[in-house]
């Protein structure tokens, strides 16, 4: 029995609330159960220095956890992001770029900030799922102002965690499961089923190819539900 009493293939309650901040070109408050992340997309009318003059844009991300997002206060990363933070924000950026036509952006950059308000496992997967909605609304804001002709998004993208908990594959781990899982994985998948990134790690006991395939099957189920929620949030 899972601590949350969920079935092995059941997600936590997920919500996606758009337009939650006044000034950002796109924003989304995403909730995976008790994990809450505020995603805001900001447009800058120039690309990174290293990309200037090439006629295309860039999508990047930054990730941070508020000091009391967890059970005890963590110090703000004001000087240099930790290795974990850098790894997560690079993952978010890669996931968004995988479904974005950067050429269609023109020489502009969009930065999606993912700030964890409350953490209960799966902060990176929630961030990716909400960041896509914030990015979509930023691009829509640009199209409505004739800055771009067509929507540069090629597909949806969402992410979910899976793991081996007490010997059984389970979907969407919360902290109680994630902290003791024998195997912990994060799966980033597009709306059409393409794999963007798979991160799976054994914690104390190795996992088999058969178990990995089972986890991937659970992830595909979870992402299909998340993409449906993204579509519903957009009114599509």
From TrEMBL:
Family affiliation: Belongs to the RNase PH family.
Tree of life domain: Bacteria
EC number assigned by the record: 2.7.7.56
Gene name of the encoded protein: rph
Catalyses which reaction(s): tRNA(n+1) + phosphate = tRNA(n) + a ribonucleoside 5'-diphosphate
Pfam families (UniProt xref): RNase_PH (PF01138), RNase_PH_C (PF03725)
Top EC class of this enzyme: transferase
InterPro entries for this protein: ExoRNase_PH_dom1 (IPR001247), ExoRNase_PH_dom2 (IPR015847), ExoRNase_PH_dom2_sf (IPR036345), PNPase/RNase_PH_dom_sf (IPR027408), Ribosomal_Su5_D2-typ_SF (IPR020568), RNase_PH (IPR050080), RNase_PH_bac-type (IPR002381), RNase_PH_CS (IPR018336)
UniProt keyword annotations, A-Z: Nucleotidyltransferase, RNA-binding, rRNA processing, Transferase, tRNA processing, tRNA-binding
Its biological purpose: Phosphorolytic 3'-5' exoribonuclease that plays an important role in tRNA 3'-end maturation. Removes nucleotide residues following the 3'-CCA terminus of tRNAs; can also add nucleotides to the ends of RNA molecules by using nucleoside diphosphates as substrates, but this may not be physiologically important. Probably plays a role in initiation of 16S rRNA degradation (leading to ribosome degradation) during starvation.
Molecular function as annotated in GO: 3'-5'-RNA exonuclease activity; tRNA binding; tRNA nucleotidyltransferase activity
Gene3D superfamilies: GHMP Kinase, N-terminal domain
Binding annotation for phosphate: 84, 122-124
Subunit organization: Homohexameric ring arranged as a trimer of dimers.
Classification via NCBIfam families: RNasePH
Protein name: Ribonuclease PH
Lineage of the species this protein comes from: Bacteria, Pseudomonadati, Pseudomonadota, Alphaproteobacteria, Hyphomicrobiales
Domain Exoribonuclease phosphorolytic stretches: 11-138, 157-222
Xref: CDD domains: RNase_PH_bact
An annotated GO BP: rRNA 3'-end processing
């Amino acid at each position: 029995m899972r601590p949350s009493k969920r079935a092995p293939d059941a997600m936590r309650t997920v919500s996606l609330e758009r337009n939650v901040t006044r000034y950002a070109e796109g924003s989304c408050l995403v909730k995976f159960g008790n994990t809450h992340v505020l995603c805001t997309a900001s447009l800058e009318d120039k690309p990174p220095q290293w990309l200037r003059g090439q006629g295309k844009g860039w999508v990047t991300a930054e990730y941070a956890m508020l000091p009391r997002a967890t059970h005890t206060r963590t110090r703000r990363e004001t000087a240099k992001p930790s290795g974990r933070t850098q790894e997560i924000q690079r993952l978010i950026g890669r996931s968004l770029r995988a479904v974005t036509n950067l050429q269609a952006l023109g020489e502009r950059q969009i930065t999606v900030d993912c700030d964890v308000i409350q953490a209960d496992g799966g902060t990176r997967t929630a961030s990716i799922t909400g960041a896509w909605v914030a990015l979509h609304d930023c691009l829509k804001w640009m199209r409505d102002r004739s800055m771009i002709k067509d929507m540069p998004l090629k597909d949806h993208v969402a992410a979910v965690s899976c793991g081996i908990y007490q010997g059984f594959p389970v979907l969407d781990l919360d902290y109680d499961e994630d902290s003791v899982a024998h195997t912990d994985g994060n799966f980033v998948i597009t709306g059409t089923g393409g794999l963007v990134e798979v991160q799976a790690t054994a914690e104390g006991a190795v996992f088999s190819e058969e178990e990995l395939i089972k986890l991937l099957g659970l992830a595909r189920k979870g992402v299909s539900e998340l993409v449906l929620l993204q579509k519903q949030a957009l009114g599509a």
